[in-house]
Design brief:
Blueprint lengths: L1 H4 L13 H14 L11 H8 L3 H13 L3 E2 L7 E2 L4 H25 L2 H19 L4 H16 L4 H22 L4 H19 L3 H30 L1
């Protein structure tokens, strides 16, 4: 289960393989984990040096990330990481409701017990870490669980759309949940346990019902947290 093992690390030198795709993956990782923050200028010279490549694959990768909605590019200015505002949150979460509710009904019938056991271990670790005020494991478990729900379908068009929405939601979740309170994070993990229980019950209707409640609550949590962050920044 690749989703459960996916971790977001720092920047690495580029080696063999298509440069443009490798550079895109590295910059994408930096944006999704908010090592490059919303609105931050992206200095091509610095990135080229860090990655050990010329400017060309960096520019090509940034153009691809602009298409993905993660980078904003304007003439005669440095590229910037796309901003996140209230409308972005609402748009992304509404799309998540459409996509994940469709997918989780299938996941409830398709996921193996072994896979669900792996998710349970990940959630248990996230809960232990969150009780100690450490939230990286929670963020990774959040991405793993929701990613797994989206991966279960073999519909290629769905997968392309889901990947685009998921990228947007990951960086918003990483930005906001990283500053959440201990109680909020533990509450989110409890909601994940409820989703897992519905998947174990092989009950598509219950899984959709719990996912809908989880995402609606999550959108409100995210909007509240984003408003608080914006107020602090003023």
């Amino acid at each position: 289960m690749s989703a459960s093992r996916a971790r977001f690390g720092g920047i690495h030198k580029i080696h063999k393989g298509p440069l443009r795709e490798q550079v895109r993956a590295q910059i994408r990782r930096l944006i999704l984990t908010n090592r490059l923050l919303p609105g931050q200028a992206i200095v091509i010279d610095q990135l080229s040096n860090d990655l050990g490549v010329s400017h060309t694959p960096v520019r090509e990768a940034l153009a691809m990330l602009q298409y993905d909605g993660l980078v904003a590019m304007r003439p005669y200015e440095n590229p910037r990481v796309a901003e996140v505002d209230e409308s972005d949150v609402r748009e992304v979460w509404h799309m998540r409701l459409l996509l994940e509710e469709w997918a989780i009904g299938r996941a409830a019938l398709a996921l193996s017990e072994e896979t669900l056991d792996e998710i349970a271990v990940i959630l248990d670790n996230a809960y232990r870490e969150a009780e100690l005020g450490r939230y990286d494991a929670h963020l990774e478990s959040d991405i793993a669980l929701h990613g797994l729900i989206l991966e279960v379908t073999e519909n290629k068009l769905f997968k392309r759309l889901a990947d685009l929405v998921n990228d947007q939601s990951i960086r918003i979740r990483w930005l906001v949940e990283a500053v959440g309170s201990r109680e909020e994070i533990l509450s989110i993990i409890d909601e994940h346990y409820a989703l897992l229980a519905a998947l174990r019950a092989r009950d598509p209707d219950l899984a959709r019902e719990r996912l809908h409640a989880h995402l609606e609550t999550g959108m409100q949590r995210t909007l509240t947290a984003l408003a608080s962050m914006e107020a602090v920044g003023k």
